Amino acid sequence: MNDGGLIGIFLQNLPVLVVVIPLLLAPILAIITAPRVAWVVSVAGVGSAFLAAILLQSITESIGRVTYHLGNWEPPWGIEFVVDSATSLTLVIMTGLAFLATLYARASLLAEIKHTDLGKCYAAWLLASGGLFGLVATGDAFNLFVFLEISALSSAILISMGAGADRRALSAGFNYLLIGAVGATFYVIGVGFVYAITGTLNIADLVTRIADLGGGAALYAGFGFMIAGIMVKAAVFPVHIWLPAAYGYAPSAVSSLLAAIATKAALYVLARLLFTLFAGVPDITELAVTYVIVPLSLAGIFVGTVMAIYEKDIKLLLAHSSVAQIGYIALGFGLASSASVAASFVHICNHALIKGGLFMAVGGFVAALSSRANLASFVGIGRRMPITATAFTVCGLSLAGLPLTAGFISKLYLVRAILAEDAYVIAALVLLSSALSLIYLWKIIEVMWMQPVPAKSPNLVENPAIYLPIWVVALANIWFGVDASWLVAASRAAAAALLGGGL
Amino acid sequence: MLMQLAAIWNYLIVILLMMIGLFLVISRANLVKKLVGLSIFQTSVFLFYITLGRVSGGTAPILTDAPDTLYSNPLPHVLILTAIVVGVATTALGLALILRIKESFGTIEEDEILAAKNESAAEDLLQAKPGAEA
Fold this sequence. Notes:
The structure holds 2 protein chains of 2 kinds.
Chain A: H1 5-12, H2 14-31, H3 35-63, E1 65-69, E2 80-84, H4 85-112, H5 118-137, H6 141-160, H7 168-198, H8 203-213, H9 217-234, H10 242-249, H11 252-277, H12 282-310, H13 314-335, H14 338-369, H15 381-384, H16 386-400, H17 406-420, H18 424-449, H19 464-482, H20 485-499
Antiparallel strand pairs in A: 1-2
Helix pairs in contact in A: 2-3, 2-5, 3-4, 3-5, 4-5, 4-11, 4-14, 4-19, 4-20, 5-6, 5-11, 6-7, 6-11, 7-9, 7-10, 9-11, 10-11, 10-13, 11-13, 11-14, 12-13, 12-18, 13-14, 13-18, 14-16, 14-17, 14-19, 14-20, 16-18, 16-19, 17-19
Chain B: H1 2-7, H2 9-27, H3 31-52, H4 75-105, H5 110-127
Helix pairs in contact in B: 2-3, 3-4
């Protein structure tokens, strides 16, 4: 088994190591009180998960699909991890962004939370990351619920860590916990229904048994509960209400981590349920995407955008805009063509880069200003903190979908996929909402760059530990805007794996 | 009629508990009551799974020497053991957060917290007048 020593073991256990390394390091971190040591361990943990995800991606690109039996129990009795092209692409995006967010976290967390909480904060950070990676990697319906709860509890802890700077983080964390728990319980009720009629929890096994059943009231009830529960987690309109406060009042590093990976994992699970698990009952999935997912995501796009236009607090503004962006991703899944699902994967990656970068940059401003970031405190900040402000602007333009940025590629592929379905009204709505998103971005950019620096304002120091990771993300936004060939190819493979029912 | 009702008795209780729990979560302003509602909601799911595991005529799933023993399905019980742990963790974290909320807001009523939050939002805008951070 362990020929090739430690590296051999690493290579043979990739699917599980992505999840297990962060989870196992978390309890160790909880007792380490030295923040710097805790940070180094976190970087190493998330970094090795990133490495494992990259290796998995190269494996799925060549052989397609990897499975891993936990504890060597044969599925369907034991828990199985399944990694195909869709899984590995999502994992690469999530681990990569989590790695950058962890690199960035040290300086930003030092500025925003109580120093005695730092060790515990990194422990929750690793638990949240590991839980979310597990959500994507697992091939067992009940195990998925466990990962859902691991990530939800640790995210609630991370969000309420923002209480050091602002007490509103506490109620945001509590609401997230409450609404998240209701969502997860809905999911587990659905799993109960499906288990009652199929007698299995292994997803690959469920796929064939559901196809054999072909329908029935209990199956439809299970479907409804599972989809509704995951929609709460993915913050699809109208069950997104936990999101703006949670991202708005969490410490900035936490906002960037969660915005980049948390809803993305839930959206991936949503797609898995719709296109893999319930592929055997096309009538009900078609009903769900046409009459539920598509209208709700369009509504979410507009509600999020309009809320962002009227918001003055920068982090809340970005959080409202996340609701709209989640709408675009869900819309791509809702149209259920291979092109639109591929477009959704492109946008999962690009939105993670965009929002991750924007929240990191806001964290940079907050650390220097030591006050909340809102339009009033942003006056003239472009001249006072040019390095961070330029990176913020790059990510912002990418959010609006300017050519040569990653956001443009997402919009391009999404609109193309919509037009291929002859859905002209939806295409027009998407373009209109993009135009509206320029309003809230311009509002920020105008205040940042075009208003004079207020008199008597103190000099602000820019910390390289903060702006270097932001710039890596900003440059990635430009890179994927100029050469998106790898991402588009990987997304097409992911869509093919997802729609092919190949689990 | 009564016999039919008795046959699905457990499921009726599950639905009743589920509705009570969800209603409490949505309707109560008191955070502790919300959390109690959540616990009831989760408990209804525990009961649901345990009812699913029952095989009519089956005995407790403990291996006996008799060859043709019909056992109830033990798997849902094991799953629910996990879900109970999750429920306990959720309640514990929720109560811890409520304590912190009480410390910093001085109340656990949602409408009063909302009023306090609106005050903070107004303060934010005042503080951040140009140059005010000097």
